[in-house]
Amino acid sequence: MSPSQPSVAFQGLPGAYSHLACRTALPGHEPLPAPSFEDAFSMVRDGGADLAMIPIDNSLAGRVADIHHLLPEGGLHIVGEHYQRVNHHLLAVPGARIGDLKRVKSHVHALGQCRRLIRELDLVPEVVADTAGGAREVARLADPSIAAIASELSAETYGLVSLRAGVEDADHNTTRFILLAREPADPGPGSGPVVTSFVFRVRNVPAALYKALGGFATNGVNMTKLESYIVDGDFVAAQFLADVEGHPEERGLRLALEELQFFSREVRIMGVYPAHPYRFEARAALGAE
Known about the structure:
This protein is about 30% helix and about 30% strand. It is α/β, with parallel strands linked by helices. The strands form 3 sheets. Strands 1, 2, 3, 4, 5 and 11 form a 6-stranded mixed beta sheet that branches. A 5-stranded mixed beta sheet has the order 8-7-9-6-10. It has a 4-stranded antiparallel beta sheet with strand order 13-14-12-15, sandwiched between helices. Helix 1 (about 15-25) links the parallel strand 1 (about 5-10) and strand 2 (about 30-35). The radius of gyration is 21 Å and the shape is elongated. Keywords: Amino-acid biosynthesis, Aromatic amino acid biosynthesis, Lyase, Phenylalanine biosynthesis.
């Protein structure tokens, strides 16, 4: 990496889908692998990377574990989003044939997303830490009876061949990533479609959540995400992570956030950033059905 080239940290091994997301969304950035999500956050905080590419939701598997807990205390700001289509490949060493395969290695979610293929080929699934790790293990073992389910980038990275492409059961398998930086990068009101992400905790009073969210409905603000999770082992009150369309300086969202603050113990904006075009493509596709 040259001193002037920007960099982006991702969790996982080279060839992981997070690595692919970095190459797709930020081709001018040097991808830097990190062993864990915490390490990726730290690399950005400490100046070892300019950005972090972090998966937050998958259209099949749901939310990515741990990220919702790391975000509020991670000391970083959301500055962008990216939607990465997940195309699984059945990978093996050169010379391997589908009919000779006995076992297949991959992340637990990837195996679950390819059940039809595993049944069709009567393979024994073996769970590994991540898809790229499975591909690396297949390359190391050099056994033509063992395959991996991973990305095409993993095949390129570890010298494997794709015996079959698009082996996922659902053709909508997509992961949403967020881009994190040390400093916010607010695009400003009127700059085009934007998303505002924030966390909040409502007061422990009857109907607090209902009242807190009422302002978004009455002010015409579209909330595209709302998830709750327990923090600090407290089962009485939860923390919420929300995404809404709009800028906090626009009248509707400004009024909705004021109402939210009235009924909440804490409201913290995690980022204001441009909306990815996939949001509107997916909405248009739903409207056409």
